[in-house]
Amino acid sequence: MSAKSEEHEWWQSGVVYQVYPRSFQDANGDGVGDLRGILSRVDYFEWLGVDAVWLSPIYPSPMKDFGYDISDYCGVDPLFGSLEDFDALTAELHRRGMKIVLDFVPNHTSDQHPWFQESRSSRDNPKRAWYIWRNPGPNGAPPNNWLSQFGGEAWEYDGVTGQYYYHAFLKEQPDLNWRNPEVQEAMLNVLRFWLDRGVDGFRVDVIWHIVKDDEFRNNDPDPNYHPGLAPARRLLATYNTDRPEVHHIIERMRDVLDEYGEKMMVGEVYLPLERLVTYYGAQGSGVHLPFNFQLIELPWHARVIADAIDKYEGLLPSYGWPNWVLGNHDNPRIATRIGAAQARVAAMMLLTLRGTPTMYYGEELGMHNVPIPPERVQDPFEKNVPGLGLGRDPERTPMQWSTGPRTGFSEAEPWLPIAEDYASRCVEAQRDDPHSMLTLYRRLLELWRREPALNIGDYRSAPAQGDVLAYRRVEGDSQFLIVLNLGGGAAVFSGMMPVGHVVLSTHLDREGEAFNGRIELRPADGVVVRLEK
Ligand code: GLC
User: What separation in Å is there between the alpha carbon of 205 and the centre of ligand 1?
Assistant: First the structure.
Protein backbone atom coordinates (compact mmCIF):
# COMPACT_ATOMS: atom_id res chain seq x y z
CA MET A 1 0.00 0.00 0.00
CA SER A 2 1.13 3.53 -0.58
CA ALA A 3 2.66 5.76 2.02
CA LYS A 4 0.92 8.97 1.13
CA SER A 5 0.33 11.82 3.46
CA GLU A 6 -3.21 12.12 4.68
CA GLU A 7 -3.02 15.86 4.24
CA HIS A 8 -2.97 15.46 0.50
CA GLU A 9 -5.87 14.72 -1.77
CA TRP A 10 -5.85 11.87 -4.25
CA TRP A 11 -5.23 14.15 -7.20
CA GLN A 12 -2.09 15.52 -5.56
CA SER A 13 -0.41 12.27 -4.64
CA GLY A 14 -1.80 10.23 -7.53
CA VAL A 15 -0.88 9.64 -11.15
CA VAL A 16 -3.42 10.27 -13.90
CA TYR A 17 -3.48 8.08 -17.02
CA GLN A 18 -5.17 9.46 -20.13
CA VAL A 19 -7.10 7.03 -22.30
CA TYR A 20 -8.20 8.02 -25.79
CA PRO A 21 -11.22 5.70 -25.89
CA ARG A 22 -11.27 5.18 -29.67
CA SER A 23 -7.79 3.72 -29.48
CA PHE A 24 -7.44 1.81 -26.24
CA GLN A 25 -9.25 -1.50 -26.65
CA ASP A 26 -12.00 -2.59 -28.99
CA ALA A 27 -14.33 -5.16 -27.42
CA ASN A 28 -17.07 -5.34 -30.06
CA GLY A 29 -14.93 -5.82 -33.14
CA ASP A 30 -15.70 -2.65 -35.09
CA GLY A 31 -12.14 -1.33 -35.18
CA VAL A 32 -12.87 1.46 -32.67
CA GLY A 33 -12.16 1.21 -28.95
CA ASP A 34 -15.03 1.20 -26.46
CA LEU A 35 -15.95 1.19 -22.78
CA ARG A 36 -16.19 -2.61 -22.50
CA GLY A 37 -12.72 -2.70 -23.96
CA ILE A 38 -11.44 -0.30 -21.32
CA LEU A 39 -13.20 -2.33 -18.64
CA SER A 40 -11.37 -5.43 -19.84
CA ARG A 41 -8.09 -3.60 -19.21
CA VAL A 42 -8.67 -2.46 -15.64
CA ASP A 43 -6.20 -5.14 -14.54
CA TYR A 44 -3.60 -3.36 -16.59
CA PHE A 45 -4.17 0.02 -14.90
CA GLU A 46 -3.83 -1.67 -11.54
CA TRP A 47 -0.76 -3.64 -12.52
CA LEU A 48 0.86 -0.53 -14.00
CA GLY A 49 0.15 1.40 -10.83
CA VAL A 50 -1.81 4.47 -11.85
CA ASP A 51 -4.35 6.15 -9.59
CA ALA A 52 -6.86 7.73 -11.96
CA VAL A 53 -8.03 7.15 -15.50
CA TRP A 54 -9.08 10.15 -17.60
CA LEU A 55 -11.25 9.31 -20.58
CA SER A 56 -11.34 11.63 -23.58
CA PRO A 57 -15.01 12.23 -24.59
CA ILE A 58 -17.37 9.26 -24.71
CA TYR A 59 -20.62 11.20 -25.28
CA PRO A 60 -22.99 11.00 -28.24
CA SER A 61 -21.30 12.84 -31.05
CA PRO A 62 -21.31 13.09 -34.85
CA MET A 63 -17.51 12.60 -34.41
CA LYS A 64 -16.52 15.51 -36.62
CA ASP A 65 -13.83 16.18 -34.01
CA PHE A 66 -13.88 12.62 -32.64
CA GLY A 67 -16.07 13.28 -29.65
CA TYR A 68 -15.11 16.89 -28.91
CA ASP A 69 -18.31 17.79 -30.78
CA ILE A 70 -21.00 16.67 -28.38
CA SER A 71 -24.68 16.30 -29.22
CA ASP A 72 -25.76 15.09 -25.76
CA TYR A 73 -23.73 15.80 -22.64
CA CYS A 74 -25.55 13.22 -20.55
CA GLY A 75 -25.17 10.04 -22.53
CA VAL A 76 -22.68 7.64 -24.06
CA ASP A 77 -22.21 7.30 -27.79
CA PRO A 78 -23.31 3.82 -28.96
CA LEU A 79 -19.92 3.49 -30.59
CA PHE A 80 -18.43 3.41 -27.09
CA GLY A 81 -21.27 1.52 -25.38
CA SER A 82 -23.95 2.61 -22.95
CA LEU A 83 -24.42 4.35 -19.63
CA GLU A 84 -24.54 0.88 -18.06
CA ASP A 85 -21.10 0.15 -19.49
CA PHE A 86 -19.91 3.43 -18.08
CA ASP A 87 -21.32 2.59 -14.65
CA ALA A 88 -19.67 -0.82 -14.79
CA LEU A 89 -16.30 0.75 -15.59
CA THR A 90 -16.67 3.33 -12.82
CA ALA A 91 -17.63 0.65 -10.30
CA GLU A 92 -14.70 -1.55 -11.27
CA LEU A 93 -12.16 1.26 -11.07
CA HIS A 94 -13.54 2.30 -7.71
CA ARG A 95 -13.53 -1.26 -6.43
CA ARG A 96 -9.80 -1.33 -7.13
CA GLY A 97 -9.17 2.01 -5.48
CA MET A 98 -8.80 3.99 -8.69
CA LYS A 99 -10.58 7.16 -9.82
CA ILE A 100 -12.33 8.07 -13.04
CA VAL A 101 -12.02 11.47 -14.68
CA LEU A 102 -14.19 12.56 -17.59
CA ASP A 103 -13.59 15.13 -20.29
CA PHE A 104 -15.95 18.09 -19.90
CA VAL A 105 -16.28 20.14 -23.09
CA PRO A 106 -18.00 23.37 -22.09
CA ASN A 107 -16.80 25.73 -24.80
CA HIS A 108 -18.81 24.32 -27.68
CA THR A 109 -21.37 21.71 -28.60
CA SER A 110 -21.92 19.86 -31.86
CA ASP A 111 -24.02 21.69 -34.42
CA GLN A 112 -26.28 18.62 -34.08
CA HIS A 113 -26.95 19.30 -30.40
CA PRO A 114 -30.69 20.02 -29.94
CA TRP A 115 -29.75 23.31 -28.26
CA PHE A 116 -28.04 24.52 -31.41
CA GLN A 117 -30.73 23.13 -33.67
CA GLU A 118 -33.21 25.25 -31.76
CA SER A 119 -30.91 28.22 -31.58
CA ARG A 120 -30.38 28.38 -35.31
CA SER A 121 -34.10 27.86 -36.13
CA SER A 122 -35.12 31.51 -35.63
CA ARG A 123 -33.90 34.76 -34.15
CA ASP A 124 -36.55 34.68 -31.45
CA ASN A 125 -36.10 31.07 -30.42
CA PRO A 126 -35.61 30.84 -26.62
CA LYS A 127 -32.25 29.15 -27.23
CA ARG A 128 -31.04 31.84 -29.64
CA ALA A 129 -28.89 33.47 -26.99
CA TRP A 130 -27.36 30.14 -25.95
CA TYR A 131 -24.85 30.56 -28.77
CA ILE A 132 -22.93 33.54 -30.13
CA TRP A 133 -24.86 35.13 -32.99
CA ARG A 134 -23.81 38.41 -34.58
CA ASN A 135 -24.93 40.51 -37.49
CA PRO A 136 -22.73 40.58 -40.58
CA GLY A 137 -20.18 43.34 -40.86
CA PRO A 138 -20.07 45.78 -43.79
CA ASN A 139 -20.82 44.11 -47.15
CA GLY A 140 -21.86 40.92 -45.42
CA ALA A 141 -18.37 40.28 -44.04
CA PRO A 142 -17.86 38.33 -40.81
CA PRO A 143 -18.48 40.36 -37.63
CA ASN A 144 -14.77 40.60 -36.81
CA ASN A 145 -11.40 39.06 -37.70
CA TRP A 146 -11.32 36.16 -35.26
CA LEU A 147 -9.91 32.92 -36.65
CA SER A 148 -10.82 29.29 -36.11
CA GLN A 149 -8.19 27.13 -34.42
CA PHE A 150 -8.74 24.60 -37.19
CA GLY A 151 -8.19 27.02 -40.09
CA GLY A 152 -10.26 29.75 -41.73
CA GLU A 153 -12.67 32.25 -40.21
CA ALA A 154 -14.22 31.61 -36.82
CA TRP A 155 -17.60 32.84 -38.09
CA GLU A 156 -20.10 30.84 -40.10
CA TYR A 157 -22.93 32.60 -41.90
CA ASP A 158 -26.31 30.98 -41.40
CA GLY A 159 -28.67 31.86 -44.24
CA VAL A 160 -31.82 30.85 -42.33
CA THR A 161 -31.63 33.79 -39.95
CA GLY A 162 -29.08 36.01 -41.72
CA GLN A 163 -26.53 36.08 -38.92
CA TYR A 164 -23.12 34.59 -38.23
CA TYR A 165 -22.33 32.22 -35.36
CA TYR A 166 -18.96 31.92 -33.72
CA HIS A 167 -16.97 28.68 -33.64
CA ALA A 168 -13.47 28.62 -32.17
CA PHE A 169 -12.94 25.18 -33.73
CA LEU A 170 -14.89 23.50 -36.57
CA LYS A 171 -18.02 25.09 -37.96
CA GLU A 172 -19.70 21.94 -36.66
CA GLN A 173 -18.63 23.03 -33.14
CA PRO A 174 -20.55 26.25 -32.37
CA ASP A 175 -19.41 28.02 -29.20
CA LEU A 176 -21.83 28.28 -26.33
CA ASN A 177 -22.58 31.72 -24.92
CA TRP A 178 -21.33 31.40 -21.35
CA ARG A 179 -22.43 34.95 -20.55
CA ASN A 180 -25.96 33.57 -20.59
CA PRO A 181 -27.02 32.39 -17.09
CA GLU A 182 -29.26 29.71 -18.62
CA VAL A 183 -26.24 28.20 -20.35
CA GLN A 184 -24.33 28.30 -17.09
CA GLU A 185 -27.12 26.49 -15.26
CA ALA A 186 -27.55 23.87 -17.96
CA MET A 187 -23.85 23.14 -18.10
CA LEU A 188 -23.40 23.05 -14.33
CA ASN A 189 -26.18 20.48 -14.30
CA VAL A 190 -24.11 18.40 -16.69
CA LEU A 191 -21.36 18.34 -14.06
CA ARG A 192 -23.93 17.30 -11.44
CA PHE A 193 -25.24 14.54 -13.69
CA TRP A 194 -21.82 12.88 -13.87
CA LEU A 195 -20.87 13.63 -10.27
CA ASP A 196 -24.10 11.93 -9.19
CA ARG A 197 -22.95 8.91 -11.19
CA GLY A 198 -19.73 8.79 -9.20
CA VAL A 199 -17.23 10.56 -11.42
CA ASP A 200 -14.19 11.80 -9.48
CA GLY A 201 -13.22 14.72 -11.62
CA PHE A 202 -13.10 16.43 -14.97
CA ARG A 203 -10.53 17.48 -17.48
CA VAL A 204 -12.03 20.70 -18.79
CA ASP A 205 -11.53 21.23 -22.50
CA VAL A 206 -10.17 24.60 -23.73
CA ILE A 207 -11.20 26.27 -20.50
CA TRP A 208 -9.42 29.52 -21.38
CA HIS A 209 -11.65 29.89 -24.44
CA ILE A 210 -15.00 29.86 -22.67
CA VAL A 211 -15.66 33.60 -22.40
CA LYS A 212 -15.13 36.05 -25.28
CA ASP A 213 -14.83 39.81 -25.34
CA ASP A 214 -18.22 41.43 -24.80
CA GLU A 215 -17.39 44.06 -27.46
CA PHE A 216 -16.05 41.53 -29.98
CA ARG A 217 -12.97 43.64 -30.67
CA ASN A 218 -10.62 42.60 -33.48
CA ASN A 219 -7.45 40.73 -32.59
CA ASP A 220 -4.11 42.26 -33.55
CA PRO A 221 -1.58 40.44 -35.74
CA ASP A 222 0.98 38.36 -33.87
CA PRO A 223 4.44 39.69 -34.75
CA ASN A 224 5.92 36.25 -34.02
CA TYR A 225 3.80 34.44 -36.58
CA HIS A 226 5.58 32.63 -39.39
CA PRO A 227 4.22 30.30 -42.06
CA GLY A 228 4.38 26.75 -40.77
CA LEU A 229 2.53 27.64 -37.60
CA ALA A 230 -1.19 26.92 -37.39
CA PRO A 231 -3.02 29.62 -39.40
CA ALA A 232 -4.89 30.88 -36.31
CA ARG A 233 -1.51 31.95 -34.90
CA ARG A 234 -1.50 34.86 -37.36
CA LEU A 235 -3.45 36.81 -34.74
CA LEU A 236 -2.95 37.27 -31.02
CA ALA A 237 -5.88 35.66 -29.24
CA THR A 238 -6.42 38.70 -27.02
CA TYR A 239 -10.15 39.12 -27.34
CA ASN A 240 -11.43 35.61 -28.00
CA THR A 241 -9.63 33.83 -25.14
CA ASP A 242 -8.46 34.33 -21.56
CA ARG A 243 -10.99 37.04 -20.73
CA PRO A 244 -11.10 38.07 -17.08
CA GLU A 245 -14.75 36.98 -16.72
CA VAL A 246 -13.77 33.35 -17.31
CA HIS A 247 -12.66 33.08 -13.71
CA HIS A 248 -16.14 33.74 -12.45
CA ILE A 249 -17.45 30.86 -14.56
CA ILE A 250 -14.71 28.56 -13.31
CA GLU A 251 -15.60 29.49 -9.73
CA ARG A 252 -19.15 28.36 -10.38
CA MET A 253 -17.88 25.03 -11.72
CA ARG A 254 -15.64 24.70 -8.72
CA ASP A 255 -18.54 25.36 -6.36
CA VAL A 256 -20.42 22.47 -7.92
CA LEU A 257 -17.45 20.15 -7.48
CA ASP A 258 -16.99 21.30 -3.91
CA GLU A 259 -20.59 20.27 -3.17
CA TYR A 260 -19.43 16.70 -3.78
CA GLY A 261 -16.30 16.50 -1.64
CA GLU A 262 -12.92 15.39 -2.91
CA LYS A 263 -13.36 16.02 -6.63
CA MET A 264 -10.88 17.44 -9.11
CA MET A 265 -10.81 19.71 -12.14
CA VAL A 266 -7.82 19.87 -14.45
CA GLY A 267 -8.08 22.62 -17.02
CA GLU A 268 -6.70 22.64 -20.52
CA VAL A 269 -4.90 25.98 -20.76
CA TYR A 270 -2.28 26.80 -23.39
CA LEU A 271 -0.98 30.12 -22.06
CA PRO A 272 2.31 31.57 -20.81
CA LEU A 273 3.09 30.66 -17.19
CA GLU A 274 2.15 34.06 -15.80
CA ARG A 275 -1.35 33.68 -17.24
CA LEU A 276 -1.58 29.96 -16.57
CA VAL A 277 -1.27 30.32 -12.82
CA THR A 278 -4.24 32.70 -12.68
CA TYR A 279 -6.40 29.64 -13.42
CA TYR A 280 -5.84 28.40 -9.87
CA GLY A 281 -8.22 31.23 -9.05
CA ALA A 282 -8.00 33.71 -6.24
CA GLN A 283 -7.51 31.70 -3.03
CA GLY A 284 -7.88 28.42 -4.85
CA SER A 285 -11.35 28.98 -6.25
CA GLY A 286 -10.29 27.96 -9.75
CA VAL A 287 -9.32 24.64 -11.27
CA HIS A 288 -7.26 22.38 -9.05
CA LEU A 289 -4.72 21.81 -11.79
CA PRO A 290 -4.28 24.13 -14.75
CA PHE A 291 -2.42 21.84 -17.15
CA ASN A 292 1.26 22.71 -17.26
CA PHE A 293 2.30 21.94 -20.85
CA GLN A 294 5.90 23.11 -20.58
CA LEU A 295 7.43 19.68 -21.18
CA ILE A 296 5.38 19.49 -24.36
CA GLU A 297 6.25 22.95 -25.60
CA LEU A 298 9.84 23.63 -24.55
CA PRO A 299 12.93 22.48 -26.44
CA TRP A 300 14.50 19.44 -24.76
CA HIS A 301 17.40 21.30 -23.29
CA ALA A 302 18.52 20.93 -19.68
CA ARG A 303 19.14 24.62 -19.00
CA VAL A 304 15.86 25.68 -20.57
CA ILE A 305 13.93 23.09 -18.59
CA ALA A 306 15.76 23.84 -15.35
CA ASP A 307 14.82 27.51 -15.70
CA ALA A 308 11.25 26.62 -16.57
CA ILE A 309 10.85 24.40 -13.51
CA ASP A 310 12.20 27.12 -11.24
CA LYS A 311 10.02 29.75 -12.84
CA TYR A 312 6.94 27.57 -12.53
CA GLU A 313 7.68 26.70 -8.90
CA GLY A 314 8.22 30.39 -8.24
CA LEU A 315 4.99 31.53 -9.85
CA LEU A 316 2.70 29.00 -8.20
CA PRO A 317 0.40 30.58 -5.66
CA SER A 318 0.82 29.23 -2.13
CA TYR A 319 -2.29 27.10 -2.59
CA GLY A 320 -1.42 25.98 -6.13
CA TRP A 321 -0.45 22.35 -6.65
CA PRO A 322 1.86 21.74 -9.65
CA ASN A 323 1.39 19.20 -12.42
CA TRP A 324 3.40 17.86 -15.35
CA VAL A 325 2.59 16.09 -18.58
CA LEU A 326 4.64 14.84 -21.55
CA GLY A 327 1.96 14.26 -24.13
CA ASN A 328 -1.68 14.04 -25.04
CA HIS A 329 -4.00 13.40 -27.99
CA ASP A 330 -3.22 16.82 -29.51
CA ASN A 331 0.56 16.75 -29.58
CA PRO A 332 3.28 14.59 -31.12
CA ARG A 333 4.33 11.75 -28.85
CA ILE A 334 7.30 12.39 -26.59
CA ALA A 335 9.31 9.49 -28.11
CA THR A 336 8.96 11.12 -31.52
CA ARG A 337 9.84 14.59 -30.29
CA ILE A 338 12.96 13.67 -28.36
CA GLY A 339 13.78 10.08 -29.40
CA ALA A 340 13.46 6.73 -27.69
CA ALA A 341 16.48 7.15 -25.40
CA GLN A 342 15.47 10.57 -24.09
CA ALA A 343 11.88 9.39 -23.65
CA ARG A 344 13.22 7.30 -20.76
CA VAL A 345 14.80 10.39 -19.24
CA ALA A 346 11.48 12.18 -19.71
CA ALA A 347 9.67 9.36 -17.89
CA MET A 348 12.01 9.72 -14.95
CA MET A 349 11.52 13.48 -14.97
CA LEU A 350 7.73 13.23 -15.14
CA LEU A 351 7.62 10.85 -12.19
CA THR A 352 10.10 12.68 -9.98
CA LEU A 353 9.19 16.34 -10.43
CA ARG A 354 6.90 17.89 -7.85
CA GLY A 355 3.30 17.77 -8.95
CA THR A 356 0.63 15.49 -10.34
CA PRO A 357 1.88 13.58 -13.39
CA THR A 358 -0.45 12.79 -16.27
CA MET A 359 0.60 9.97 -18.59
CA TYR A 360 -0.75 9.52 -22.10
CA TYR A 361 -1.62 5.91 -23.00
CA GLY A 362 1.25 4.11 -24.71
CA GLU A 363 3.91 6.48 -23.39
CA GLU A 364 4.83 3.67 -21.00
CA LEU A 365 5.71 1.51 -24.02
CA GLY A 366 7.69 4.17 -25.82
CA MET A 367 4.97 4.40 -28.46
CA HIS A 368 5.89 6.92 -31.15
CA ASN A 369 3.92 8.80 -33.78
CA VAL A 370 2.68 6.52 -36.52
CA PRO A 371 2.89 7.82 -40.10
CA ILE A 372 -0.61 8.05 -41.58
CA PRO A 373 -1.01 7.44 -45.30
CA PRO A 374 -3.04 10.24 -46.94
CA GLU A 375 -6.03 7.98 -47.61
CA ARG A 376 -6.28 7.10 -43.91
CA VAL A 377 -6.21 10.63 -42.49
CA GLN A 378 -9.05 11.13 -40.01
CA ASP A 379 -8.27 14.33 -38.12
CA PRO A 380 -10.25 17.36 -39.36
CA PHE A 381 -7.33 19.62 -38.45
CA GLU A 382 -5.11 17.82 -40.97
CA LYS A 383 -7.89 17.82 -43.53
CA ASN A 384 -8.50 21.57 -43.14
CA VAL A 385 -4.89 22.60 -42.96
CA PRO A 386 -2.97 19.87 -44.80
CA GLY A 387 0.75 19.51 -45.11
CA LEU A 388 1.88 21.47 -42.05
CA GLY A 389 2.22 18.42 -39.87
CA LEU A 390 -0.57 19.63 -37.61
CA GLY A 391 -2.65 16.46 -37.87
CA ARG A 392 -3.15 14.57 -34.63
CA ASP A 393 -3.81 11.08 -35.96
CA PRO A 394 -0.16 9.96 -35.56
CA GLU A 395 -0.40 10.21 -31.75
CA ARG A 396 -3.87 8.63 -31.59
CA THR A 397 -3.11 5.17 -33.02
CA PRO A 398 -4.18 1.96 -31.25
CA MET A 399 -2.67 0.98 -27.94
CA GLN A 400 -0.17 -1.82 -28.49
CA TRP A 401 -1.08 -4.82 -26.39
CA SER A 402 0.27 -8.01 -27.92
CA THR A 403 2.57 -9.38 -30.61
CA GLY A 404 -0.48 -11.00 -32.23
CA PRO A 405 -2.73 -9.78 -35.04
CA ARG A 406 -3.69 -6.11 -34.78
CA THR A 407 -1.67 -6.11 -31.55
CA GLY A 408 -4.68 -7.40 -29.64
CA PHE A 409 -6.45 -4.08 -30.04
CA SER A 410 -9.28 -5.28 -32.26
CA GLU A 411 -10.69 -8.16 -34.29
CA ALA A 412 -11.16 -5.76 -37.19
CA GLU A 413 -8.98 -3.32 -39.09
CA PRO A 414 -8.54 -0.41 -36.66
CA TRP A 415 -9.76 3.11 -37.44
CA LEU A 416 -6.12 4.27 -37.53
CA PRO A 417 -3.10 2.19 -38.54
CA ILE A 418 -1.01 0.34 -35.96
CA ALA A 419 2.70 1.10 -35.64
CA GLU A 420 4.83 -1.24 -37.75
CA ASP A 421 7.17 -2.02 -34.86
CA TYR A 422 4.36 -2.91 -32.47
CA ALA A 423 5.74 -6.37 -31.79
CA SER A 424 8.62 -4.87 -29.83
CA ARG A 425 6.69 -1.96 -28.34
CA CYS A 426 3.74 -3.75 -26.85
CA VAL A 427 2.74 -4.80 -23.38
CA GLU A 428 3.28 -8.49 -24.08
CA ALA A 429 6.86 -7.96 -25.28
CA GLN A 430 7.82 -5.59 -22.51
CA ARG A 431 6.08 -6.72 -19.38
CA ASP A 432 8.68 -9.30 -18.33
CA ASP A 433 11.71 -7.61 -19.86
CA PRO A 434 13.75 -6.15 -16.97
CA HIS A 435 15.12 -3.36 -19.16
CA SER A 436 12.00 -2.33 -21.07
CA MET A 437 10.34 1.07 -21.03
CA LEU A 438 7.30 -0.54 -19.44
CA THR A 439 9.43 -1.92 -16.63
CA LEU A 440 11.01 1.50 -16.16
CA TYR A 441 7.55 3.08 -15.86
CA ARG A 442 6.36 0.43 -13.44
CA ARG A 443 9.42 0.86 -11.28
CA LEU A 444 9.06 4.64 -11.35
CA LEU A 445 5.38 4.40 -10.44
CA GLU A 446 6.16 1.98 -7.64
CA LEU A 447 8.80 4.32 -6.25
CA TRP A 448 6.44 7.28 -6.60
CA ARG A 449 3.76 5.46 -4.63
CA ARG A 450 6.10 4.29 -1.93
CA GLU A 451 8.06 7.48 -1.31
CA PRO A 452 6.28 10.54 0.05
CA ALA A 453 9.37 12.60 -0.83
CA LEU A 454 8.66 11.86 -4.49
CA ASN A 455 4.91 12.23 -4.57
CA ILE A 456 4.35 15.10 -2.18
CA GLY A 457 7.81 16.25 -1.10
CA ASP A 458 9.35 19.67 -1.64
CA TYR A 459 11.32 20.52 -4.74
CA ARG A 460 14.87 21.95 -4.54
CA SER A 461 16.88 22.66 -7.62
CA ALA A 462 20.49 21.44 -7.61
CA PRO A 463 23.34 23.14 -9.46
CA ALA A 464 24.23 21.43 -12.73
CA GLN A 465 25.75 22.42 -16.05
CA GLY A 466 25.37 21.69 -19.73
CA ASP A 467 23.03 18.85 -20.53
CA VAL A 468 22.55 17.81 -16.93
CA LEU A 469 19.41 18.56 -14.98
CA ALA A 470 19.51 17.88 -11.25
CA TYR A 471 17.14 18.44 -8.37
CA ARG A 472 16.25 17.10 -4.98
CA ARG A 473 12.95 16.02 -3.50
CA VAL A 474 12.61 16.26 0.23
CA GLU A 475 10.03 15.17 2.76
CA GLY A 476 11.00 15.09 6.43
CA ASP A 477 14.16 13.02 6.76
CA SER A 478 13.74 11.44 3.39
CA GLN A 479 15.70 12.95 0.52
CA PHE A 480 16.26 12.02 -3.11
CA LEU A 481 18.57 13.46 -5.72
CA ILE A 482 17.56 13.13 -9.34
CA VAL A 483 20.23 13.58 -12.00
CA LEU A 484 19.28 13.45 -15.66
CA ASN A 485 21.41 13.68 -18.76
CA LEU A 486 19.34 15.32 -21.48
CA GLY A 487 22.18 15.16 -23.95
CA GLY A 488 23.60 12.58 -26.33
CA GLY A 489 27.12 12.62 -24.86
CA ALA A 490 28.65 11.50 -21.57
CA ALA A 491 28.37 13.95 -18.67
CA VAL A 492 29.32 14.32 -15.04
CA PHE A 493 27.40 15.65 -12.10
CA SER A 494 29.21 16.73 -8.99
CA GLY A 495 27.71 18.77 -6.26
CA MET A 496 28.01 19.29 -2.55
CA MET A 497 25.65 16.49 -1.64
CA PRO A 498 25.48 13.95 1.14
CA VAL A 499 26.34 10.43 0.10
CA GLY A 500 23.75 7.92 -0.98
CA HIS A 501 23.00 5.19 -3.46
CA VAL A 502 21.17 4.77 -6.73
CA VAL A 503 17.68 3.33 -6.35
CA LEU A 504 16.62 3.55 -9.98
CA SER A 505 18.25 4.36 -13.29
CA THR A 506 16.84 4.95 -16.78
CA HIS A 507 18.85 2.02 -18.14
CA LEU A 508 17.74 -0.09 -15.17
CA ASP A 509 21.29 -1.21 -14.53
CA ARG A 510 22.80 1.04 -11.85
CA GLU A 511 20.65 0.19 -8.86
CA GLY A 512 22.66 -0.08 -5.67
CA GLU A 513 25.61 1.90 -7.01
CA ALA A 514 27.16 4.17 -4.39
CA PHE A 515 26.93 7.94 -4.79
CA ASN A 516 29.68 10.01 -3.23
CA GLY A 517 28.77 13.46 -4.41
CA ARG A 518 29.79 12.80 -8.00
CA ILE A 519 28.26 10.66 -10.68
CA GLU A 520 29.15 9.90 -14.28
CA LEU A 521 26.35 9.70 -16.76
CA ARG A 522 26.17 7.95 -20.09
CA PRO A 523 24.11 9.51 -22.90
CA ALA A 524 20.47 9.70 -21.83
CA ASP A 525 21.35 8.33 -18.42
CA GLY A 526 19.27 9.28 -15.44
CA VAL A 527 19.44 8.22 -11.82
CA VAL A 528 17.34 8.55 -8.71
CA VAL A 529 19.65 8.59 -5.70
CA ARG A 530 18.48 8.10 -2.14
CA LEU A 531 20.57 10.46 -0.04
CA GLU A 532 21.59 9.52 3.46
CA LYS A 533 20.51 11.64 6.37
C1 GLC B 1 -9.13 20.54 -27.13
C2 GLC B 1 -9.03 19.06 -27.36
C3 GLC B 1 -8.88 18.82 -28.83
C4 GLC B 1 -10.11 19.33 -29.52
C5 GLC B 1 -10.34 20.80 -29.17
C6 GLC B 1 -11.71 21.24 -29.56
O7 GLC B 1 -7.98 21.20 -27.48
O8 GLC B 1 -7.99 18.54 -26.61
O9 GLC B 1 -8.67 17.47 -29.13
O10 GLC B 1 -9.99 19.19 -30.90
O11 GLC B 1 -10.24 21.03 -27.80
O12 GLC B 1 -12.66 20.66 -28.70
Answer: 6
Q: What is the pLDDT of residue 467?
A: 98
| CA 491 to centroid of ligand 1, rounded, Å | 40
DSSP H helices, 15-104, are: 35-39, 42-48, 83-95
Whole-model pTM: value is 0.98
pLDDT tens by residue, 183-235: 999 999 999 999 999 999 999 999 999 999 999 999 999 999 999 899 999 99
Pair 68, 24 in one domain: yes
State the CATH number of the domain containing residue 16.
3.20.20.80
* CA-proximal residue: ligand 1, atom 9 (nearest): 330
Domain match, 199 and 292 both:
yes
Residues marked as catalytic = 205, 259
Q: Which segments of the chain have a pLDDT < 70?
A: 1-6
Q: Do residues 529 and 505 lie in contact, with contact meaning Cβ atoms separated by under 8 Å?
A: no
Structural domain of 279? 3-107+181-445
Residue 401 near residue 428, CB atoms below 8 Å: yes
CB neighbour list of residue 476: distance below 8 Å, 6 or more residues apart: 452, 453
Asked if the structure places residue 43 within a domain, the reply is: yes
356 and 496 in a single domain? The answer is: no
Q: How far is the CA of 16 from the centre of ligand 1 (A)?
A: 19
List pocket residues of ligand 1, CB cut-off 6 Å. Answer: 65, 68, 105, 169, 205-206, 268, 329-330
